[in-house]
């Protein structure tokens, strides 16, 4: 299907790279949009912020690799490579109107992937740009890239290649920025997430779900840069694209009166510097390794595949019952907005509204029944609940008192 168009895109993506030998590029329809996070909050019946999930139907509130072999237990996947039962997820984009109400921004399919239910994502696995052998992810592997607490360019620079493309049309692949586009994007906003490409070779996961992987020690993945001694094993570059269809929110008369942009992520971020994505590996058997070894390019005779419409039939119902569509008075989970945000609108409406500079936690820690955004990775406060409440869930990122 339009192989030359894909080749063109692949070349466009490989800016400043020697050459891309081969890559898997495929569509995964939406599986479910809900406020769960089996990686950061295993066992918690709700997570603090809303996610959009694609991939296999083993997605659940716990996905303990010791108890489940995802690749053999899952029965369907939204991805067109039908042995890929992995789950991939990101946060969800919302438009915020001048009156303070929020509306979820729909997703649309990428070029060539028409019919992908609710847009879903485009997934890439690139073995290498210089024909070296890569070690595919192993059973039980999971990782996160990005950090929902980052709100500055300096913080975001700790990660590489987490960007946004302001789509002039669906084939725009230039002008990636680390923060949200400042002007209306005629064809939507594409969120691009490239994961690190070096692994420590031992750990399937780590406490922060990130430190078992790393970036090349010099150069880049695309330039064939070497992996650091601490993380010597080259793994495929996993790359996710999600297209947020902002078109019906592009009227500047509806944008904040201070001239800033109106889109806010489900984790309470207008800047985009907190962009992040999660991956739970679930390829059946050694199928991914076989595809990497064969240097499959777009299509792959070594892999079983299904049509986009078959993939779109795989779906899950929301386990967290709450409204996520229509105009909402707050972000799902009552997620508070932190960091830079629009000034209150000057036309008499609330604009910045409840998020406008509000302190997410009352002094002394988690004193509300809502999820509290307690700081960030390694945060040690907010571990005690107000009298009369008990802590139902806590980790280094969040806690919840009821
Ligand atoms: C999810 O987990 C629950 C309980 O832990 C179980 O009853 C349910 O069958 C699981 N769903 C899937 C799709 O595995
Ligand atoms: C807020 O503004 C949006 C967009 O103009 C409108 O559709 C919605 O009804 C308004 N909500 C309230 C509560 O006024």
From TrEMBL:
GO terms for molecular function: cellulose binding. One of its GO terms (cellular component) is extracellular region. Residues 366-402 form the CBM1 domain. GO terms for biological process: carbohydrate metabolic process. It holds the Pfam family CBM_1. Residues 1-22 form the signal peptide. Residues 349-358 have a biased composition (Gly residues). Keywords: Signal. Residues 332-364 are annotated as: Disordered. This is CBM1 domain-containing protein.
């Amino acid at each position: 299907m339009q192989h030359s168009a894909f080749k063109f895109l692949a070349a466009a993506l490989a800016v400043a790279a020697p050459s891309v030998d081969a890559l898997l590029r495929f569509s995964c329809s939406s599986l479910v949009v809900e406020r769960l996070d089996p990686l950061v909050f295993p066992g918690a019946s709700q997570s603090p912020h809303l996610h959009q999930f694609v991939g296999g139907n083993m997605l659940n509130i716990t996905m303990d690799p010791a108890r489940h072999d995802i690749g053999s237990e899952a029965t369907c996947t939204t991805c067109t490579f039908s042995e890929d039962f992995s789950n991939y997820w990101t946060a969800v984009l919302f438009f915020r109107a001048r009156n303070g109400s929020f509306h979820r921004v729909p997703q649309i399919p990428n070029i060539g992937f028409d019919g992908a239910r609710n847009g879903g994502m485009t997934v890439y696995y690139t073995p290498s740009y210089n024909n070296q052998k890569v070690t595919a992810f192993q059973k039980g592997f999971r990782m996160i890239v990005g950090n929902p607490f980052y709100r500055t360019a300096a913080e975001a620079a700790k990660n590489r290649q987490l960007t946004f493309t302001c789509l002039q049309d669906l084939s725009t692949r230039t002008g990636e920025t680390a923060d949200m586009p400042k002007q209306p994007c005629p064809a939507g906003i594409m969120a691009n997430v490239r994961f690190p490409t070096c692994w420590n070779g031992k750990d399937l996961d780590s406490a922060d779900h990130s430190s078992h992987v790393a970036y090349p020690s010099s150069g880049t993945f695309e330039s064939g840069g070497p992996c650091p001694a601490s993380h010597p094993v080259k793994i495929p570059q996993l790359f996710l694209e999600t297209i947020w269809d902002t078109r019906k929110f592009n009227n500047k008369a509806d944008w904040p009166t201070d001239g800033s942009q109106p889109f806010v992520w489900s984790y309470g971020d207008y800047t985009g510097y907190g962009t992040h994505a999660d991956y739970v590996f679930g390829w059946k058997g050694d199928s991914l390794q076989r595809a990497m070894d064969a240097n499959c390019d777009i299509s792959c005779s070594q892999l079983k595949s299904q049509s986009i419409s078959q993939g779109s039939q795989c779906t899950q119902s929301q386990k967290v019952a709450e409204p996520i569509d229509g105009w909402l008075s707050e972000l799902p989970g009552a997620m508070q907005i932190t960091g830079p945000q629009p000034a209150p609108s000057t036309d008499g409406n609330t604009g910045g509204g409840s998020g406008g500079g509000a302190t997410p936690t009352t002094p002394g820690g988690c004193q509300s029944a809502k999820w509290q955004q307690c700081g960030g990775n390694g945060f040690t406060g907010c571990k005690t609940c107000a009298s009369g409440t008990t802590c139902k869930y806590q980790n280094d990122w969040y806690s919840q008192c009821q």
